Amino acid sequence: MAKTQAVHDQCPIEVGLNILSGKWKLKILWHLSKGTIRFNELQRLLGGITTKTLTGQLRELEEQGIVVRKVFPEVPPKVEYSLSEIGTTLNPILSQLCDWGKTYHTYMETKKTRKERALETKNKIFDTAVTLIKNKGYDNVTISEICQTAGLAKGSFYVHYKSKEDIVRESYYADLGKYIQKHYTNFVTKNPDKPIIERIIYFLNLELKFAEYAGYELTCLAYSLNLAACIPGPSEHFSKRHFSKLLYEEISQSLIYISSPFSCKDIFEYLESIVRGIMATWCFSNNSFNIVERGEKYIKQSVYSILSNQNHESNSYTCEHSRDCTRDM
User: Fold this and answer.
1) Separation between Cα atoms, residue 184 and residue 180, nearest integer Å
2) What confidence category does residue 329 fall into, taking pLDDT thresholds of 50, 70 and 90?
3) From the CB of residue 128, how many other CB atoms can be counted at a distance below 10 Å?
4) Which residue pairs from 235-240 have beta carbons closer than 8 angstroms and sit at least 24 positions apart in sequence?
5) DSSP strand E in the chain: where?
6) Residue 303 half-sphere exposure, CB side, CA atoms within 13 Å?
7) Is there a contact between 268 and 319 (Cβ–Cβ < 8 Å)?
8) Tens digits of per-residue pLDDT, 185-221?
9) Measuring CA to CA, how many Å separate 167 from each of 62, 104, 138, 243?
10) Which of the two ends of the chain, N or C, has the fewest CB atoms closer than 10 A to its terminal CB?
11) Residue 6 and residue 329: Cα distance in Å, rounded?
């Protein structure tokens, strides 16, 4: 519902904020400040907005008198949106806000430490390499192409990686670690009351989500290269997976509340083996199934089965989903 009630009783700043508040309205008005736009084109320019949300936002702006909607008597119907006369008075404000945003972005860039900029560069190299490898295949991507696409000098690449193979090797150590740390921390911060067992499931699912993000070929190569590195001598696999300490700590914490015949170390190795097994099956099957969807089901079954002494709801989940997992084997 449009926020137009009792405007005369509101502070002028509050009036403006009520009209412009929300994730999409300023973006909608910015695009409309360039001229008349059809609905589908506006949705494409915004990116990520649903038809229902865009319709609702435009309706509010129309009710507030900021946007004009024009329907053409055609089949299929043609609908265009533009700023009203009062709406166009926002153009200077939108331009100034855009300029301020650029200024603030520059300011924040200067505030970054050398370490933060280096990490940002490394992430850019990795993300670019992942995209190119997904689209073209590992053998068809060169270091020069990665640097050119990322807009970086070749020297920047060699600051962080020794070779293209290094990107693959590190993907399942440093890059996976950063991915899990970021998403897991956000999850716990937003869901402080989540039961430990659900946090463990979420953590394990993140490993599969990273595999999906990195892509099938990169995951297969990472397995191959990192297994080969274990053959000559002592394996560094577990010592490099610093993020696994988070999982171990969560399992240890869960055993305070949940009785289990297994030790923390046993449960940790079992669950990590389940995840690696799912990844290996995905690789061997030539990416024939959705690793995240199927993996989530198997992980839930595995976690609930080994951490067995739980409430009625958890036990009934195990019984219900054990049949699904058995059927899919």
Assistant:
1) 6
2) very low
3) 20
4) 240/173, 240/174
5) 37-38, 67-72, 78-83
6) 26
7) no
8) 989 888 888 888 999 999 999 999 999 988 888 888 8
9) 51, 33, 11, 18
10) C
11) 62
How open is the CA angle 293-297-301, to the nearest 5 degrees? 165
Buried b (16+ CB within 10 A) or exposed e, 215-230: bbbbbbbbbeebeeee
User: Which amino acid is located at 134 in the chain?
Assistant: K
Asked if 215 and 130 touch (Cβ cutoff 8 Å), the reply is: yes
**What's this model's pTM, rounded to 2 decimal places?**
0.55
**H or E segment at 39?**
helix 39-46
Across 29-56, b (16+ Cβ under 10 Å) vs e yields: bbbbbeeebebeebbeebeebeeeebee
CA 302 – CA 137 distance, rounded (Å): 34
Query: Looking at residue 14, what is its pLDDT?
Result: 84
* Paired tokens of 233: 């001598």
- Which string of DSSP letters, residue by residue, matches 93-151? HHHHHHHHHHHHHHHHHHHS-HHHHHHHHHHHHHHHHHHHHHHH-GGG--HHHHHHHHT
